[in-house]
Amino acid sequence: MDIRILNIGTMACNELWGEREPVRSGHATTTLIRVEDATILIDPSLPPQVIAARLGERAAITPDAVTHVFLTSFRPDVRRGIMLFENAEWLISAAEREAVGTPLAADLKRLAESGLLDDPDDDDRALVEAIQHDLAVLQRCKPAPDALAPGVDLFPLHGVTPGMTGLLLPSNRGDLLITGDAVPTREHLEQGRIPIRSDNPDAARDSLLEAIEIADTVILGRDNFMVNPIRRSFTGAMPG
Predict the structure, then answer these.
(1) What are phi and psi for residue 47, nearest 5 degrees?
(2) In what order do the strands lie in the sheet with 38-42?
(3) pTM for the complete prediction?
(4) In this predicted model, what pLDDT tens digit does every residue of 72-111 receive, in sequence order?
(5) In this structure, which CATH number among 3.10.560.10, 2.30.30.100, 1.20.1290.10, 3.60.15.10 belongs to the domain 2-93+144-227?
(6) In 3-state terms, what secondary structure has residue 88?
(7) Contact (Cβ atoms closer than 8 angstroms) between residue 221 and residue 184
């Protein structure tokens, strides 16, 4: 198995750095996994032309070599470059797909009932196009199976978003967990903190604790690869 980080992500606003509003363009960590016949790209967060360049720089491949794209969540800045991979199979957890799809469909229905789909004015056109685009991407995303490839297993980390899901890569050298935004940065892991912007804070804390308990090493949602410094030893109260 070959595992490579193509892009180290960053938070637009990191509250653990004392930030209270966006100060940079947020983007997710993008990882490439190659095992047997599968070439799996996780969270294509950068624009298509940048992702294409990173594939060449970090793995000497072109976008058409990617067989699967997996989204840890449906957040817009996690999937900026997904349209580059028209020949790949797009995957997301069934829980995230359902949680996102229901309100998107309701929004589209309201727009249709109001007549805005047929004749949007300038102020509403961008909203209509954004909802239609999101629905098209979501419909293309299939519910991910429990294992994407041998040794690449789904690991539910619900809470920051309703169906956020990471990937667990167990091995005799230690278990690696790709966390997505369930554990965005080194500081969140070391301090046992969840992101302030969490859909369900209680579930997010439970997911963080599970990640701490199981992972020997992690690829963080908005940070680099690191060894888990507190595995099996985290017993304190979970801060909010």
Answers:
(1) -60, 155
(2) 2-7, 30-35, 38-42, 68-71, 89-92, 142-143
(3) 0.90
(4) 999 999 999 999 999 999 999 999 999 999 888 887 777 7
(5) 3.60.15.10
(6) coil
(7) yes
